[in-house]
Amino acid sequence: MNKPMDVSVPTIGYWINGQHVAAASSRSGEVTNPATGAVSKRVAYANAADVDRAVQAARAAFPAWRDTPPLRRARILMRYRELIEKNRDELAKLITAEHGKVLADAAGSLQRGLEVVEFATGIPHLLKGELSVNVGTDVDCHSTREPLGVCAGITPFNFPVMVPMWMYPVAIACGNTFVLKPSEKVPSAAMRLAELFKEAGLPDGVFNVVHGDKESVDAILAHPDIRAVSFVGSTPIAKYIYETCAKAGKRVQALGGAKNHAVVLPDADLEFTADALIGAAYGSAGERCMAISAVVAVDPIGDQLVEMIKKKAAALKIGPGDSGNMDMGPLITRQHSDKVKGYVDAGEKEGAKMVLDGRGFTCKGNEDGFFLGASLLDKVTPSMSVYKDEIFGPVLVVLRAKSLDEAIKLINDNPYANGTAVFTRSGGAARKFEREIEVGMVGINVPIPVPTAFFSFGGWRNSLFGDQHVHGMEGVRFYTRGKVVTTRWPDADALPTGFHMPTLG
Ligand code: NAD
């Protein structure tokens, strides 16, 4: 952090007004390849002047973009979609090189992002307003949704393409201009996305990218010309973003961390369930906000289920994300991998049963990479830190419950409420779970219930601060404000007179 520039690796600057620009700030940070531990690039950290440059470009581009017919905006998004499709492999490689996840996973996340671009191409329809004729005698009323101006997005390391795409395609389709501040750990994919958008015909200044840390984020939050902020990241920062933006009068949606539970009922198909849980817990090395990190096994299924998960988890192939055929790559940084190990240590000390211990794993040929094996802890209780905290690594904890009611209560008492799932063959049990669970995204025999782009994504409680979820119609509402127009065209000789409160009848 904040080291002088290392000239032996390239430094990534910003994308402002349709071109690459160098930073005014002298601060920068390292970008690491998690599979090798080597520093591959440096990235500039924006100061307030850098952020202002991006905002001024976005501000200048706003009036013409706002006035561009939605259908023309949509056509640019259609071309953008094609270009992303064409450059899919390159983008997936950029994700893997800086995040570490396996290429198939990177490509899958790109696809989920692309679906939001596809959703946004429907913007002429999505922006249609309402009309009521004759709300009073010869009086009509119609409503429109109008863009806000310059919007900003601040995103986490774990989805370098998908999470930014939850935001900017919808914001831009609605007629806003945008400044993105991606995670400083994974800056390259966002730059390529910006280049492709220009190639698709997006006017300069509509989409801008700056990089950086807290200082850069604070400059965004303090900028008077930024009207709305979308944030995705950890809960403490999400809360800070929400409070700071609210105080400044900005519109804000701030998605936070998670502890996602899967409830397994005794009638579930165990083989299917165990397979689903392996992917949901250890895929992307557990660095997903929708990862299943806690299993609630309802009596008497626990022992059998744990045995099955153990067997499958022990067989996972772990290695560099780009080496083909791997199930799981490294974690994002050495510091994070040490933190995850610390949680497994704590779980053991607090009395959890260690079923599978991933702490000692080393990746042959990549000894300096940030790899961990899969860990599985059983007989975990709600007071243990492995249960209470979001670990964000390849660690699955199993709790036991006597009944579905007890499992539901446990989940509803947890401060996080992003996603959850139930595994059962009983329609009645599934329906009860769906009705009684207080969580934003629910899966019935679906371990990671990430809504498609046509629906909205978001959790409850400490997993989201704000009123609107991302993409889908909530995204359109977040990035627009309503206007209602009441119209009368009176005959010149029949004008109403008087100073009383107007009524329409
Ligand atoms: P993070 O909170 O550390 O960082 C997120 C963003 O905030 C980054 O752009 C970062 O530069 C910035 N930031 C970091 N510290 C800051 C500070 N003190 N002040 C202002 N800005 C700051 O999160 P991360 O480690 O990049 O990502 C992992 C977290 O994101 C996990 O908690 C995960 O659950 C969460 N996440 C949530 C969702 C969701 O949809 N709810 C999706 C993906 C990730």
Describe it.
The structure is a single chain. The longest helix has 19 residues. The radius of gyration is 25 Å and the shape is globular. The chain has 16 helices and 23 strands. A seven-stranded mixed β-sheet has the order 15-16-17-14-13-19-20, sandwiched between helices. It is of the alpha/beta class and 505 residues long. It binds nicotinamide-adenine-dinucleotide (NAD). The site of nicotinamide-adenine-dinucleotide has 27 residues, from helix 8.
Question: Short summary of the structure?
Answer:
37% of the residues lie in helices and 22% in strands.
- Alpha-carbon Rg, integer: 25 Å
Distance from N terminus to C terminus (CA atoms, Å) equals 67 Å
What overall form do the CA principal axes indicate? globular
Structural class: alpha/beta
Strands of the widest sheet, in order across it, are 15-16-17-14-13-19-20
**Please, how many helices?**
16
Give the percentage of residues in beta strands: 15-25%
Helix content: 25-40%
Write the layout of secondary structure elements.
Layout: E1 11-12, E2 14-16, E3 19-21, E4 28-33, E5 38-44, H1 48-66, H2 70-86, H3 88-99, H4 103-120, H5 123-126, E6 130-136, E7 139-147, E8 150-154, H6 162-173, E9 177-181, H7 188-199, E10 207-209, H8 214-222, E11 226-232, H9 235-247, E12 251-255, E13 260-264, H10 270-282, E14 292-298, H11 302-314, H12 334-349, E15 353-356, E16 375-378, H13 385-388, E17 395-401, H14 404-413, E18 416-417, E19 419-423, H15 427-436, E20 441-444, E21 460-461, E22 464-465, H16 472-478, E23 480-488
Helix pairs in contact: 2-4, 2-7, 3-4, 3-7, 4-6, 10-11
This protein binds nicotinamide-adenine-dinucleotide.
Nicotinamide-adenine-dinucleotide binds at residues 154-159, 163, 181, 183-184, 213-214, 217, 232-234, 237, 255-258, 289, 390, 392, 418, 459, 463.
